[in-house]
Design a protein that fits this description.
- The complex is a heterodimer of chains A (about 110) and B (about 110).
- By secondary structure, chain A is mainly β.
- Chain A has no helices and eleven strands.
- In chain A, strands 2, 4, 5, 9, 10 and 11 form a six-stranded mixed sheet that branches. Chain A has a five-stranded antiparallel sheet with strand order 1-3-8-7-6, with no helix packed on it.
- Chain B is globular and about 40 Å long.
- Classes of the chains: A mainly beta (about 110), B mainly beta (about 110).
Chain lengths: ~110, ~110
Amino acid sequence: KNQVEQSPQSLIILEGKNCTLQCNYTVSPFSNLRWYKQDTGRGPVSLTIMTFSENTKSNGRYTATLDADTKQSSLHITASQLSDSASYICVVSDRGSTLGRLYFGRGTQLTVWP
Amino acid sequence: EADIYQTPRYLVIGTGKKITLECSQTMGHDKMYWYQQDPGMELHLIHYSYGVNSTEKGDLSSESTVSRIRTEHFPLTLESARPSHTSQYLCASSGGLSVAYEQYFGPGTRLTVT
């Protein structure tokens, strides 16, 4: 069964600190992995998209890594800000159809305290 | 910021009522999607469309129906709302030929059926 598991489920950090969120997946075949940020009451917004051949990608203070061999990804947030408080969702796409079917994790709820 | 809009943003309605959730995008995307998301849970695909006059059911069984008469418009209808339909409904769109296309999400409609 294709699945996407994220950890931790929730995380609280102080402003200015770094943190790393984890994503393990069993989706096969694999096309790409995305990290989305979802603010409360809003739709998800894409942070990064990585294909099989990419093992790291940065977007400002966000850096995603991908190990396609172990089927693991991480999202590292540097120098956290209050506005980083949100749910971070890992999404994996397969190659099995023209739709590029997406498998969603349940997200890690990050809270940044002042 | 993605040009995809959903109305209403919040809706509280009684059991048995017919409702239509609106979704429109101005990006000319051919593919559009409806997802259902409960608090702390992953997004589930309930409907999608490859283009005008094309609609398909997603992974999660839903009593809702959709239509795609115009490229930019993808409304979702519940003929008779029930408390079990209480959830957040997210609309998304994507375009382009690459499998690694980006999905842009609307802000969502939070539906409460009493």
